[in-house]
Amino acid sequence: MPANSGSVFSQTLQEITNTKLEELSKKRSEFEATKAKILERLENENDPLKRLGLLNQGVKDCYGMKTTSDGTIISGPSNNTGLELELKHLDNFIAQATYDPSVTPELLRGWEESMLGHLDTQSSKLEYASLYAQLVTEWLSTERTAAGAVENDGGDIEMAEGFEDVGNSMKREARRGWEQVVFEPAKVDESALKAYLDNLFGLKDPSRPAKAKGLKDLREQLTKFENILAAPKQFDHATLTWAIRGLLASDLLTDERREVLRDFQSSPIILTEVADVLNLRLAALSSWSWGESVALEQQRKITGTLNIVMHEDVLQAIFLHYIGVKWSVFLKNAFRQFRKFDGAWPSSRRSIPEIDQKRREYYLGSRSLYRHHSLHSARHNIYHKHYFMTSLMGHDRQQQSSLEGEEEANYTVQNGPQVYQQQMYQQQQMQRQMPVQAPPMPVARQSAVAHRGRGAYHHAPVQAQPTGYSNAFGASAFGQPTPAVPPEFEQSDGDDEDRNPMEDKQRLIRLLSTEVAVNTKLHGEVTAFHSVFEGWYSLLPHQTVLIVMSLLGVSEMWVDFFTKFLRAPLKFLDDDPATQPRIRRRGTPASHVLSDVFGESILFCLDFAVNQATGGHALYRIREDFWFWSRDHSTAKSAWAAVSGFVNATKTYVDFKKSGTVRISRDPAVKLDIDESLPVGDIRWGFLKLSTQTGTFEIDQTLVDKHIVDLRRQLADKRKSVISFIQTWNTFAAMFFTTNFGKPANCFGRAHVDQILETHRRIQLEVFSSSPASPSPLLAGEATPSEPIVGVAEYIKHILRTRFGVSRIPDAYLFFPTELGGLDLRNPFISVLPVRGAVVPDPGALLDTFLEVERDNYERLKLAFERGDRVMTSLFGKVEGGWEPTNPSERAQFMAFEEYVRYREDINYDFDSGSNHHSLSGVYKRLLEAVPATSTESGTGIEVASAAVETGIKALAGASHSLKGIKHNWRDMDPYWRWVAQLYGPEAMRRFGGLDIVEPGLLPMGMVSIFREKRVKWQG
Fold first, then answer.
1. Nearest Cα to 348, choosing from 384, 323, 324?
2. Do 686 and 562 contact (CB within 8 A), yes or no?
3. 458 class by beta-carbon count within 10 Å (0-12 exposed, 13-18 middle, 19+ buried)
């Protein structure tokens, strides 16, 4: 088997699979032959009782049931206790009917139909088991053919006409561009970069010692960490186990090397030998090298982009992964400690003046000053848990959880003339760059704008700090100093959970959507920008990496190791054998944890720079992808100026084709000006574009159209194997498209769900629509359908019918999981429909309700104060003998509404209205919710199974194999599989007598598990 040719385990598994398929074929032939004899004998027998006797014995023979000499069933061997019991009963009833004239012919016919039904059921099970076997054989044959073609000529195979030339041309062009960059060092002004970092961390500014002290503390901790890492015997079975698991969860290794790692896992002897080798390698770290060369290969991703991946050997991969994980875990904790260092990292939390605190306590009581569970603390906790150094690891065993196809769509947008002119203006400003400086605490200054060809970097004016925002953590009640670590820092960091980058991205667009709703409603406007660094891992200057790591206190020995890691000797797999390897001078190896360590260490400086420039505001960032928003337009300008300064100093590049700024007003008819220094363009994510009119994300159908074309091409390439075709469909249509439409959430509203459903419908129609007069390109070389095809299910049924001669294919066979004998075809509609009823129809209504409740609560408090209701005022903690306003009229008149709501985002406003909490932070969190597809919450899912399906579910309890998807306990199934079980289960019960389409043990599940784990190879 070519996909796993290096594994003895896989070769053995293929032999077992071949044997199992042969036995299945023989079992089906024997069954059908026996069944045919029974039916033939029935045709020549008219006596109902004798017919029943023939069927009774025939069913026993067909099912291979053991009987005594007199025909009595011996319980157990058939593993079909229900049928055994029915046949035992039938033996008794036949004996009765032999003598008892009251047993009517109708009753005998009923028993006969039941026996014939069992024969037909078993025929169906064996037919579809045989079909599955043919599909596995087809898949194996296709894999061998593909591997042979690649081995012979190194090219792509079986692509649509014209697609191969375009794909190869793109590969050549991408390789040329990559080689022009990575083998030439970046032109970094090292003195300017060091000066920038010195200023950023206050190393030359004695008036601001907190940052320098925080860095000094980080350096001391790093020295201790290096000493720990120098201890002997770092590698053992335990460390190798989590290192191998981490590698298997990544996309670093090929399928062949992944199979080798699985072999390692199953052999303690191999693990011991590997540990010994790697311990010796770590002890001799100063002499470590990549070897003579490291092989490179271009691989296409589902997004259409081409990645250059390295193929180091397995031991090297384990060694580097272990080192990367150790540094990642340490630095994440170290950066967090720096952020908590008193006075080093300003907070955006507003400081409430002492007089305002006294007035609030006088009118509202001491509880009115509580900051816990405020909107600010909710924002802070989300940022700290999910977006501060999120690409670094929280502990050794933490893994990255993602599914194939969970990738953000790549988009390139052609800008119109006006956008082009603005970008040209930014290019012209490049000639007037200012010297690189670190961002000071916000003071008014002016700078230039710079733009550079394919990558860009530019400065923007930094405005004064917004009034009322504190540079430190702020003061507590009555001006008392706050502790070094404010309460919001004491929340869970989420490090016990596996990392899920896609969930973080999905949450990020929900955050922006929610912030747009909140800020436009409460403050009238919001400004947001989004950008991404171009070719981050490919273009990252080595000088920048090493200077930043040295600044953090990394020793010379480790800097030397990092240098050798970065300067790998590289050679493409398809290069001539005589071609000499070339030393990498720029960029970092993709998919390595150490690359994330370098990238996050550098971007930590960006996070800090934006924090300093904006008076404590956060840059929301996932690796090189970053977002910023504020209700204050000048604050957004200051944030972008900090980005520009960072880019100039580090010689990194902003991708302006994927950058954009919006400024949204509460009134859609009002168009607010955007400062020319901010990036020009729309704010996009996946297939979504933020509308400047509505303030909501909408699906960009133009981008969808482009990917529909690619989906059709990829499916055409896989059409020779039904299994590969379904895997491609599941990954591209059901996962990739659905992911990039955005997860349904309250902040998007129900209209977003309807857009998703309608777009999925359009995708299927455009990809599969076919009729005799207008056949689909996917049917090239296949029989012409007699009826129109409008979706993936009908297409696959047509292929199975014409290619394998199987008709009347039940839908359950397509959509049921493989463990039950199905093809595991995924239905994207079922993933979305259960949540539709739970999504808030109009997100703005939640904020309108909050404002109404807020006003009602104010009027209630005002009335209580004015009438001197002691019960009401004591409830809110009014203290006798405390501070009072000096003006008598103020002592008698309640505070104004504007004063009452002034700190609504900084203080916990909790309006308890019956069973509903209408606090601002509560509304914020509800808007953020990605609605779970649970029937109890949505009201549109499948909560209870029908009686027939429930019977089938319970019958799975005795399954001898592990079940996934549809399980023996209804409550253990996720909403998708509940829907599938109830939708297609009744048909399965009728056709197969249960939910298991194929008998356990008949399918080659070992081989099936291998092709399910294989990644799709995208063509082009």
1. 384
2. no
3. buried
Per-residue tokens: 745: 């959430």
Average pLDDT over residues 200-206: 89
Please compute, for residue 278, the number of CA atoms within 13 A of its CA located in the half-sphere on the CB side: 25
Residue recorded with tokens 């065993």: 397
Tokens of 740: 């990039």
The pair of structure tokens assigned to 341 is: 């260092």
- Amino acid at the residue 236: D
The pair of three-digit structure tokens given for residue 660, joined into one six-digit string: 């954009």
* Matching residue, tokens 């194939």: 404
Distance CA 312, CA 318 (A): 10
Cα 338 versus chain centre, distance: 29
Phi first, then psi: what are they for 529, rounded to 5°? -130, 155
Buried b (16+ CB within 10 A) or exposed e, 693-731: eebbbbbbeebbeebbebbbbbbbbbbbbbbbbbbbbbb
Residue 311 β-bridge partners: 295
Residues 6+ apart with CB under 8 A from 676: 422, 425, 449
> Could you read off the pLDDT of 285-327 as tens digits, one per residue?
999 999 999 999 888 888 888 888 888 899 999 999 999 999 9
Q: What is the CA radius of gyration of the chain?
A: 34
Enter the tokens of residue 469: 């925002």
Helix (H) or strand (E) holding 114: helix 105-153
pLDDT tens-digit map of 656-701: 999 999 999 999 999 999 999 999 999 999 999 999 888 999 999 9
Q: In the β-sheet with 625-630, what is the strand arrangement from edge to edge? A: 620-622, 625-630, 525-532, 660-665
Q: Whole-model pTM? A: 0.86
String of b and e for 966-1004 (b: at least 16 CB within 10 Å)? Answer: bbbebeebebbbbbbbbbbbeebbebbbbbbbbbbebbb
Which amino acid, residue 717? Answer: D
Distance between CA 712 and CA 706 in Å, rounded? 10
- Report the alpha-carbon angle 629-631-634, nearest 5: 85
Strand, coil or helix: what is 500?
coil
How many Cβ atoms sit within 10 Å of the Cβ of residue 919?
21
Query: Among 226, 36, 24, which Cα is nearest to 134's?
Result: 24
For residues 832 and 758, the answer to whether their CB atoms sit within 8 Å is: no
Q: Which residues pair with 531 in a beta bridge?
A: 626
Predicted local distance difference test score (pLDDT) of residue 1004: 73
Residue among 934, 1005, 1007 nearest 964 (CA): 1005
Burial per residue of 932-963, b for 16 or more beta-carbon CB atoms within 10 angstroms, e otherwise: bbbbebbebbbeebeeebeebbebbeeeeeeb
CA distance 305 to 1020: 9
Residue 214: closest CA among 331, 389, 341: 341
- Residue 631: other Cβ atoms inside 10 A: 18
H helix runs in 154-249, sequence order? 163-182, 190-200, 209-229, 237-249
Q: How far is CA 907 from the centre of its chain?
A: 34
Count Cβ atoms within 10 A of the Cβ of residue 430 and give its class: 0-12 exposed, 13-18 middle, 19 or more buried.
Answer: middle
In whole angstroms, how far apart are CA 992 and each of 109, 121, 812, 998, 1004?
21, 5, 10, 8, 20
Nearest to 175 by CA among 368, 326, 6, 308: 308
Q: Which is higher by pLDDT, 395 or 909?
A: 395
CA-CA distance, 144 to 268, in Å (whole number)?
A: 32
In angstroms, rounded to a whole number, what is the distance separating the alpha carbons of residues 82 and 460?
77
CA distance 126 to 814: 16
Q: How far is CA 972 from CA 320, 533, 888, 939, 988, in A?
A: 39, 43, 66, 18, 20
User: Residue 500: what pLDDT?
Assistant: 87
pLDDT of 70 strictly over 80: no
Q: Tell me the three state secondary structure of residue 823.
A: coil
Give the residue among 799, 802, 803, 836 at the shortest CA–CA distance from 814.
799
